[in-house]
Amino acid sequence: MAAQNTLPLLLLALLPLAAASTFDVANNCSYTVWAAASPGGGIQLNPGQSWSYNVPDGTTGGRVWPRTGCTFNSTGNGHCQTGDCGGVLACTGSGQSPNTLTEYSLNNPGGLDYFDISLVDGFNVPLSFKPTSNGCTSGPSCAADVNAQCPAELQVPGGCGDPCTIFGTPEYCCPSPSSCNPTKYSKYFKSQCPQSFSYPYDDNSATFACPGNTNYQIVFCP
């Protein structure tokens, strides 16, 4: 009976592995950060700890962000002060404002990855998003302490909130490109982190590109 299973096992061993990019998430902060990733899930990172996982080739709409002030029980249910994703440790969707967000789309038509940092959902933790392979070296960083000078009306527990969530008006929520222009709040975020998106239809200079199947490192408190 064992011999009958040998050929299928050999065929499986010869199949090519699905292409993927490796994401390394490191916490250089002096405090605990709960990393969140969609796809990927989430994990608690104490100071100095890191987390590595693979993202399949062709993934679009990917995101990674930090969460702070979290408490989870043994089953992974709980709550975070910033960046909460439905009260679970292993995220599957997006995080609540405020959170410093990294976004990516892997191996698009033309064979390129696209990635960026967005402050459209506000700010909680400084971070950088850098490629680490394929000879690609350029990526965005948002290392400023945005919370320290956050406008009083955007200040929320644990971070600097986004004006759409706080005010809820078209001026800040940008329902269409024609109704979306820089505001004093987006200009504040841009002044702190020029390489980041500061409002939904910000210019594309904040988008970076690398060859497909590049690996990346995201560092909290770079």
UniProtKB/TrEMBL annotation:
Under Gene3D superfamilies, the record lists: Thaumatin (2.60.110.10)
Q: Name one Pfam family in it.
A: Thaumatin
Q: What keyword terms does UniProt attach to this protein?
A: Antimicrobial, Disulfide bond, Fungicide, Signal
Superkingdom, taxonomy of origin: Eukaryota
Q: Does the keyword Chaperone apply?
A: no
Q: What InterPro entries does this protein's entry cite?
A: Osmotin/thaumatin-like_sf (IPR037176), Thaumatin (IPR001938), Thaumatin_CS (IPR017949)
Say if the entry is tagged with keyword Signal: yes
Q: Which cysteines are joined by disulfide bonds?
A: C29-C221, C70-C80, C85-C91, C142-C193, C150-C160, C164-C173, C174-C180
Which residues are in coiled coils? none
An example Gene Ontology biological process: killing of cells of another organism
Q: Which residues form the signal peptide?
A: 1-20
Similarity-based family? Belongs to the thaumatin family.
Protein name according to UniProt: Protein P21-like
Q: Whose protein is this, by species?
A: Ananas comosus (Pineapple)
